[in-house]
Structure formats: C-alpha cells, structure tokens
Amino acid sequence: MAISSTSEPDWSWLPTDLLHCVLHKLASPIDKVRFAAVCKSWGTQVKERPRQGTQIPMLLVPNKHNIYKARSLYSITDQTISDVNLPVPYNSRRCCGSSFGWLSFVTNTSSITLFNPFRNKKIRLPKLQKLRGYTTIGKQYTVEKVTLSSDPTTLEDSGCLVVAIYGEFNHLAFLKLGDESWTDVDYDLQLVLGDILYYKGQVLAIDHRGELLSIDVNTNIKKTLASRDFEYAPRTYLVETSVGDLLLVRRFFTSWPFGVDNQGMTGHFEVYKLVLDKESGRVVKWVEVKNIGDDALFLGNNYSISVLASAFSGCHPNSIYYTDDYIDTEPYYPNGPIDMGIFNLEDRSVRLHYKPNPSHKYMSPPIWILLPML
Questions:
Q1: Burial of 331 (0-12, 13-18, 19+ CB in 10 A)
Q2: The CATH number of the domain where 22 resides is what?
Q3: CA–CA separation, 215 vs 172, rounded Å?
Q4: Is 2 domain-assigned?
Q5: What confidence tens digit (pLDDT) does each residue in 163-181 have?
Q6: Domain named KIB1-4 beta-propeller: which ranges (predicted)?
Q7: In this structure, what CATH number is given to the domain that contains residue 288?
Q8: CA dist 252 to 44, 236, 337, 339, Å?
Q9: Are residues 23 and 128 in the same domain?
Q10: DSSP state for residue 355 in the 8-state scheme
Q11: What local confidence, expressed as pLDDT, does residue 53 receive?
C-alpha cells in the first residue's frame, strides 16, 4: 500500500539486516543513542546487539540551553556537547554515583534512588538513616559514594550488589537489590574509606591512607589485604586496568583543607600497582607506577574506569581524566565545580577536557557515565 505524502514515515518496518548495517557504521556513542531513540524496534536492536569492546565514558553536563530539567552528554574525544537531552534534572538531589549507565541520587529524606536516564527506569532503595554514623545534618552530603556491581537490568546480573560509603566517618554498607534493609560492615572506626571496586569476585574498599579491605558480602566477614602505609590523601581510587592489574590512585590538591576564598585544585596524582600473593591474596608490595602505558583512567564520583586510549581517537594514553568530586556539607564552593582536567603521568602536566559555563556554578558537578545499551 502506498504511503501518503502527508503521512509520517514508519521507520519500524525496516529489515533487521539493514538496521545492523547502519549500526555497524556508527562509531559515536551519541549517534547510537540517537539511533535507539527513533522508535521502539530500533532501540531493541541497539540493546540486543553484541557489545563491541570497551566503551569510553562520556561526561554528563548541563545542556546547551540551560534547561534545568535535562542534561546533555559531552564527548571528550570530539570535544562537543550533544543535542541529546536526558531526563536528569538539576534539583535538590545530589548525584553520588555512576555505574553501568545508572546514576545514584540521595535526597534530604535519606532516600537513595538508582536512575537510568537512557531507559528512564528507577529503582528506589531502602533508607540509610537507621545505620550507625548516619547524621541528620546535610543528609544528601552524608552519602559519599554509591556503586553497583553490575547492570541491574540484565538477566544474568539479577544479583546486583549496591555498596555505599556514608556517614561522618565514611562507613560502609551494602545490599542486594530486593533486600529490605542495608547491611552495615563492621570495621576499625579509624578507617576513612574513599572508594569501592568489584575486583575478581571480591568487594574491595580503600582507606585514604592506603589500607585495603576485602569484604565477603555473604558472611559480612572482612579481611585486611594491605595496611596503611601512606600519608593521608584527600581522594583515593581503586581501578582495574585493561590487562587486569589493580591500581591505587591517590589525588592531592594545591590547597588543603579548602577555604572559602581559596578553592583547592588538583595538583597531582600518585599511582601504585598492588601486587598480590597468588595463594594468600595478601598484598606483598606496593609498586609506584610512573607509566600506565596505553591506559586512560576516568575517576570521580563514578565507578572507576580504565580504557585503552588507542581504541578511541582523541583519547590521551598514560593519563588520568578526573572530575570535581569534592563534596562537603555545603553545595559547592564559590566558583562551582571547576576542578576537572587530564593529568599526564609522564610530564605531570594538566590540561582541560571540559570548561564549565560560569552560569552553571550552582549546578551539580559533571560526572562520567557509560551508555549501557551499546
């Protein structure tokens, strides 16, 4: 039957083979998001298509038109802001995590919600307020970081684990999706945890002075894999490299603690490779690393990510891409979230990857996000 010239085209009828050919030629993650948004059947093809290697994160940023009800994506390789508007509003909810395309938000009512802006799906979690160390002061800033072990929408990952660093002294709690309450991890209160990583079947947590814990979520038993051997670092991260090595990244600022008139900026990073004994699993030595080769690390409030830079044109190897993730009990210091850049491990130089608009100083800081459907 002929289609009237006044009718809107029905793109859903296109053959699957033709759609696959088009998808194969789309290199940009943004183009794949646009492809998936055409209609339901096209979106299904993107979700069901086998994943091709590692993705490079994109930066979730304010959109071009300053719409407070949506955010856009910034490509660090193309250095452009997309015209895709994701339904992520800038309001009282603070984003305290990004894992597998899911964002974690905490509110002043102690509620944590997982939100996937690409699929427009939400998962509401039990409140943290009954756990030890949870304060009623600045509740949305009491939760330091939330990470997921996997994408909760995939069938094979139905046992998705959620881990949160919370409270005045950075306590640790976890739950499996479907649980009615959080499980608190009991450990030395002198520890101040900075990051969490799921590594080779283990839940690992790192202290700001380098103490490494392994937590068995089935028994709630913890093991100390490495003791505190370093001076205090304001930010610490755990990240798995492209070849499976475990790295400890320590971040230092030019001014610490921050003052009202003296906003601290990242000065440098230190990177250490954790060498484990194969039988005991204990760390036998910390080896400082001056070169991470072709890897590029993406750090911040997101689940720490490593990619091969050579797989993405415009991505710098042997570098650390970082965002502004210093959150206290007040919603951002005078100049806004501006501490973002690319730290080169070889010459220790810093360059910008995204320059925020001054009018966005009161908005939440940009955060790295993976596109889960690709």
A1: middle
A2: 1.20.1280
A3: 10
A4: no
A5: 999 887 788 899 999 898 8
A6: 73-344
A7: 2.120.10.30
A8: 44, 9, 16, 12
A9: no
A10: -
A11: 47
Q: What is the pLDDT of residue 139?
A: 62
pLDDT recorded at residue 115: 93
Tokens for 56, please give them: 């490079």
Which domain does 182 fall in, by range?
51-369
Q: Are residues 82 and 30 in the same domain?
A: no
Pull the structure tokens for residue 373: 């459907």
pLDDT confidence band for 125 (50 / 70 / 90): very high
- Is residue 236 within 8 Å of 307, Cβ to Cβ? no
* Residue bearing tokens 């996937």: 116
Written as one letter, the residue type at 285 is K
Q: Write down the mean pLDDT value for the chain.
A: 80
Answer left, alpha or beta for residue 147, where phi above 0 means left and psi between -120 and 50 means alpha: beta
pTM for this predicted structure: 0.85
For residues 19 and 82, state if they share a domain. Answer: no
Any domain includes 4: no
Tokens of 322: 């970082």
Flag whether 266 is in a domain.
yes
Query: 209 with 346, same domain?
Result: yes
Q: Are residues 66 and 147 in the same domain?
A: yes
Two structure tokens written together for 188: 């030395």
Angle, vertex CA 314, rays to CA 313 and CA 317, nearest 5: 95
Asked if residue 319 is part of any domain, the answer here is: yes
Give the DSSP H or E segment for 46: helix 40-48
Residue 154 near residue 372 (C-beta atoms within 8 A)? no
